[in-house]
Specification:
This protein is α+β, with helices and mostly antiparallel strands. It contains 4 helices and 6 strands; from the N terminus they run H-H-E-E-E-H-E-E-E-H. The structure holds methionine sulfoxide. Methionine sulfoxide binds at residues 55, 78-79, 82, 87-89, 110-111, 113, 117, 120, 136, 138.
Length: 166
């Protein structure tokens, strides 16, 4: 699918960057409610448009085991399964809150799928009172993610969930 120039090349940063990301996601999911298609395109959008990421994607709760299992993503092959409470992803899942980790080496129990990762942002996905999984973004730069990224991406996940049959 044709995509416009990189948002970062337009000079947009912070909230303006995230507003543009919302517009692009709206275009990608227009007319499509299949969650797998929309999550896959969202992972590709984030990996393509957010500078300095080495991994962008979803871990989804497996019914039965309750484990997080890797879902649509872009980047290097990753750990397939993460138990609740383990790593940044498993911790965000059980605590039901976003975790912005400026230095993954300082996070006890961090799971290094890619040794290049230095900072990480994990956002739980909640719909109808249950947690479906998490969005996981990794960067090779320390302190890559800002409070504005957290705010913008939490909104983007609301938009993605509202646009998809989950
Ligand atoms: N670092 C994550 C594991 C997932 S990968 O980085 C893609 C964690 O500690 O949960």
């Amino acid at each position: 699918m044709y995509q416009a120039a990189k948002i970062a090349d337009t000079g947009l940063t912070g909230a303006a960057f995230h507003a543009e990301l919302e517009l692009q996601l709206a275009g990608l999911v227009a007319g499509e409610r299949n969650w797998l298609a929309n999550f896959a395109n969202c992972a590709a959008l984030l990996f393509d448009q957010m500078p300095d990421l080495n991994w962008a994607g979803f871990y989804l709760v497996e019914p039965g085991s309750g484990d997080l299992v890797v879902g649509p993503f872009q980047g290097k092959p990753a750990c397939a399964r993460i138990a609740p409470g383990r790593g940044v992803c498993g911790t965000a899942l059980v605590e039901r809150r976003t975790l912005l980790v400026p230095d993954v080496h300082a996070f006890p129990g961090h799971i290094a799928c890619d040794a290049a990762s230095r900072s990480e942002l994990v956002i739980p996905l909640e719909a109808g009172g249950r947690v479906l999984g998490v969005l996981d973004l990794d960067s090779p730069l320390p302190a890559r993610f800002t409070a504005e990224d957290q705010d913008g991406l939490e909104r983007l996940m609301q938009q993605l969930l509202a646009a998809s049959d989950v």
